[in-house]
Design brief:
Order of helices and strands: HHHHH
Number of strands: 0
Largest sheet: none
Strand content: under 5%
């Protein structure tokens, strides 16, 4: 879980997606408290950039898990719907299923060890 969290490639499960939002909210609260305590609004502005990059990457990877482009995140309420929708079964063009379901095709593997 959280393998390459700032990368836009690959797929993630619903659990990692939900935890990403919780981490984002926790970091935002902590950052705002620290910025308020230090009276430093530039500190807040600089800290928000990596947080939004992290969340954006996680949303794109969750869209990939459904077999959709990352641009689907611009559809209103789609990011909320992603919390409840199942992933594509097996691999898709964005990578293997993070649950491991359907990634291994036993029929295609029959006889491969004899060819070596």
């Amino acid at each position: 879980m959280f393998n390459k969290p700032f990368s836009f490639e690959g797929r993630i499960r619903r659990l990692e997606y939900g935890l990403s939002y919780l981490i984002f909210i926790g970091c935002a609260v902590l950052l705002s408290i620290v910025a308020d305590f230090l009276n430093e609004s530039p500190f807040l502005a600089i800290g928000v950039i990596p947080m939004f990059w992290f969340l954006l990457a996680q949303v794109v990877k969750r869209c990939h898990d459904r077999g959709n482009s990352g641009w689907y995140m611009l559809i209103p309420f789609y990011r909320i719907i992603l919390l409840f929708m199942e992933s594509d079964y097996g691999p898709n063009k964005y990578g293997p299923n993070p649950k491991g379901e359907g990634n291994f095709d036993e029929v295609n593997q029959i006889g491969n060890h004899l060819a070596d």
